[in-house]
Specification:
Strand content: 15-25%
Structural class: alpha/beta
Strand order of the largest sheet: 3-4-2-1-7-8-9-10
Shape: elongated
Number of strands: 16
Helix content: 25-40%
Order of helices and strands: EHEEEEEHEHEHEHEEHEHEHEHEEHHHHH
Number of helices: 14
Distance between the termini: 33 Å
Length: 447
């Protein structure tokens, strides 16, 4: 890499393939592009079913599926100190220099950042979501995030709205937080060779059918729009607890011929669903960024979305119609989008997305964050404790106790299994043409 600094990065998150979602895609694409830039990257996640141990993916991406099963919502059970031995072993074996944790709701990410800081590693955290301040769950997660980010080296958020939210929730200095958006694989998500007929307007919804994604709004919006616009048809992809509500709405209003329910859609088939429509509808009640909007725009669809979170930052005004999260305004926005359809050229929109969002650019900007993290001064235990003590009258003392126990366990492990006795893994370089694959997403990596 010449004069360019080479990093050895450990990506950590409970959310990774074969599970599919925004965080999973982000970790995979970013890792592939960092590999192309000459860095070493390993991913650490929990076991998925029978998938445990070490696996290799496209481009030589090494994944540790550690033998811990998910406890709730794909996250592992919080053990505080139970992860330290295996995290320490991976750090030493792979000669890691940067530990990069992803997502507030990933227990494994919090464990890795805590343990790595104790051992003197530089840590970076990426927050992919927004969180509230009033309900019990949000209060709990905000305090955990405050603990994790008390002395983090640097942090990344996917939108400016997300940055404000993270700074308020964690008390982290805004100077340490960088905004680096998500991106989209434009080689995969591209328009159809023949655009769908405009004899009818097809509106596509692909989302988890849960309250946070606005499934309840869809129940009110769809019947009203079908009444006002007889040439509109809906395709709904996704599954979740609110699916039954949509099924009942379709039956009640006799819309079986105008509302098609696909159920869960594998990520490999998302493009084929998107290119069958003209408008993509996002009804989320909260969203830090929303990669689904990028995928739809890259396929040439005009987007209608609720004006929430970081969504207004994602697309230019002529590629998206924003609405307040209420049925009346959403119906009005969809009608406006229908009137804009004759001016939309899917291929032009796709070409613009190529310029706006690129995983190579995301990787280069993340490189800068890593370099800044390595320049942060080293902190001893007393400095760690002083930072955590300020997290609250009672919580601060509890956090300090956890840090002290982690420190003692680390030294006990050093005596029981010295670092010199842990075999270092030789670097394996895979020669692949990553540019032809836009940071190499092969579908069999998720299977």
């Amino acid at each position: 890499m010449g004069d360019h600094q080479r990093h050895r990065i450990m990506m950590v998150s409970d959310f990774f393939y074969p599970n599919v979602g925004g965080v999973e895609n982000h970790v995979y694409y970013l890792s592939q592009c960092l590999l192309e830039l000459g860095h070493k990257v390993v991913v650490v996640t929990h076991a998925y079913g029978n998938r445990s141990g070490v696996r290799y993916m496209t481009g030589g991406l090494k994944v540790y599926y550690i033998p811990w099963k998910p406890f709730f919502n794909q996250s592992t059970f919080p053990t505080l100190l139970g992860m330290l031995p295996i995290i320490r072993t991976i750090l030493i074996r792979e000669r890691i220099t940067i530990v990069h944790g992803h997502q507030t709701f990933s227990t494994l990410s919090h464990h890795a950042l805590l343990n790595s800081r104790i051992m003197g590693y530089k840590v970076v955290f990426t927050d992919h979501s927004l969180n509230g301040f009033s309900d019990a769950g949000s209060i709990h997660m905000n305090k955990v995030l405050q603990f994790t980010l008390a002395d983090v080296s640097q942090a990344i958020c996917v939108s400016h709205t997300s940055k404000e939210n993270t700074v308020l929730r964690s008390g982290l200095s805004a100077d340490k937080v960088f905004v680096i958006p998500n991106a989209v694989d434009t080689e995969v998500f591209k328009p159809a060779f023949e655009p769908p007929s405009r004899s009818e307007v097809v509106i596509v919804v692909i989302s988890r059918l849960v309250y946070r994604k606005g499934a309840d709004l869809l129940v009110e919006v769809i019947p009203e729009l079908c009444r006002l616009c007889p040439n509109v048809r809906f395709i709904i992809g996704g599954d979740g607890p609110k699916r039954m509500l949509l099924e009942e709405m379709r039956e009640h209003h006799s819309l079986q011929d105008r509302v098609e329910m696909l159920g869960a859609v594998p990520h490999t088939q998302v493009r084929s669903v998107l290119i069958s429509g003209h408008i993509f509808l996002n009804s989320s009640l909260t969203e830090a960024f929303c990669i689904a909007i990028l995928e739809a725009a890259s396929c040439g669809l005009l987007t209608v979305s609720t004006r929430v979170g970081g969504v207004p930052e994602v697309l230019p005004d002529d590629m998206i119609v924003l609405a307040e999260p209420n049925p009346t305004d959403m119906v009005r926005a969809i009608q406006k989008a229908i009137s804009m359809l004759p001016k939309i050229d899917p291929q032009v929109m796709h070409n613009r997305m190529k310029e706006l969002y690129n995983w190579h650019d995301v990787a280069r900007r993340t490189e800068i964050v890593y370099s800044r993290a390595l320049k942060c001064p080293h902190q001893d235990l007393l400095e760690h404790l002083s930072r955590h003590l300020s997290c609250g009258a009672w919580a601060g003392k509890l956090f300090c106790l956890v840090m002290i126990l982690s420190f003692l366990l680390w030294h006990l492990l050093e005596l029981w299994q010295p670092a010199d006795g842990i075999e270092v893994v030789p670097d394996v370089i895979f020669h692949t043409n990553m540019m032809d694959r836009s940071c190499g997403k092969k579908e069999n990596d998720r299977l």
